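Note to self: user wants both folds in one dump. Writing first protein now.
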Amino acid sequence: MDAPSTHATLLARLREGDDPVAWRDFCDQYGELISGFARRWNFQPADRDDVVQEVLSRLSQSMPSFVYDSSRGTFRGYLKTIASNIIRDKLRQKQARGSVQPMDTRAEALESDDSIDVAWEQEWRHYHMRRAMMCLESEFNESDRLAFERYAIEGQDVKQVAQELGMSLDQVYQAKSRIVKRLSAIIEMQVAEEG
């Protein structure tokens, strides 16, 4: 039998009751994901913070009876449902106040399960990439990280990147290869921890 993942352990701590450290850990781990999802629907920073707080509030209400069963679906799917429902509610409230046009494309897109799934999946991938990138600071030197960011992420010309950083073309290619391999391993570990 597999040992419980860090993710499952965190969910168990949340379910047990008043554990402020567990909620802080959860917010540290998932707050950016939820906020990024709200950003995709053009929410301003204060509104994104409200979405995160409402998700945490709804989760705190449901956690005492929550039982994580991976055979019934993923926790990230459950989290997506809560977040998208809150965003729908907020868009409807804005429409009722006249803050957004009744035919606002954000609200229309949010009514489509495909749009929600695509937006959540994109944000989930970006979220894991951002988390993985933070790990690289202690594992790779600054030149390698800059070469990777400029060449692999920003799409700058490899010759220009090499020249600006005082590296050979081969060093830029090697930095990219090593970092991509490491990022893949980190993201795979993050996903495995989520259960």
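First done. Writing the second protein, which came from a different request thread.
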Amino acid sequence: MDPYLVSVLSNIGMISFIALSAYLLLLTGEISFGQQAYFAISAYGSGIATAMWGWPFWAGLLWGATLAGLAATLVAIPTLRLRGLYFSIATLAFAEMVRLVFEIFTYQVEIDGELVGPDGSDGFRDIRYIYDSNVTAFEYMLVIYGLLALVLIGFFVLERARLGSVFRMIGEDPMLTEMQGLNATAYKVLAAAMAGVIAGIGGGLYAHLTTYVEPKIFNVMLGVHSLAYGLIGGLGTALGPLLGVGIDIGFLESIRAISGYRMIVFGGLVAVLLIIRPRGILDEATVHWLRRRWRRWIHAQD
């Protein structure tokens, strides 16, 4: 497969994790501009585990995702008592705090005569576990999409389970949810923790593919984009955020004629869709219609 295509597909796969992370919070009615914080925490955490502590890749990835999930839980407990815009601002403030901490965070050890580890604003280099293990770019892309498939399966199970119904109920009317004897805040904290882990998986994968991370990568625009992907693709299914990522990275980025105006086009697309389709392209009504058509087609084949 063409190396450039592998690179683009790998990027789409990794960004899909943070898009799904923001989507999960959107289901509960919360808008987060700070999911890039958990992406960053895992990128650094998993990189430290493999490049500096000598852990295997899977252990490092699990470590990074766990750190991201714990951080998301600790942030969610106080902030999810806030409502609407206040919660969004709190998540943005936390993400910027994390980015600034990494700007001054220095932790290095000497390996084979060279210093390895985070070096403040100069970033964290030589996260080379994948390449030192002779894993090709194509093989790593398969790893990315294998993990993405597992996360999507988890979402499909969630959407058919009671927990998924509770999340959507909270998103539609938290007061009604409370009246039914359910602790809306506790469920939102659970959703935030799950979202942190999902973003963390993407962050760990990103660090090992690029072999280098620096604080400025995890800026507010990454958080805004992760949120916009769900709003574009639709909130009716977990495939919605993936559609949003595909439109932005796979389609808009590939059109050379608008490459210099991609952000303008992307912003305009978000604005238009919010007006004509507030719940995105694959909203609940569209997903229900597609499922009904699919069942009819299946029955027609019998």
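Dump finished. Worth passing along: Residues 184-210 form the longest helix (27 residues).
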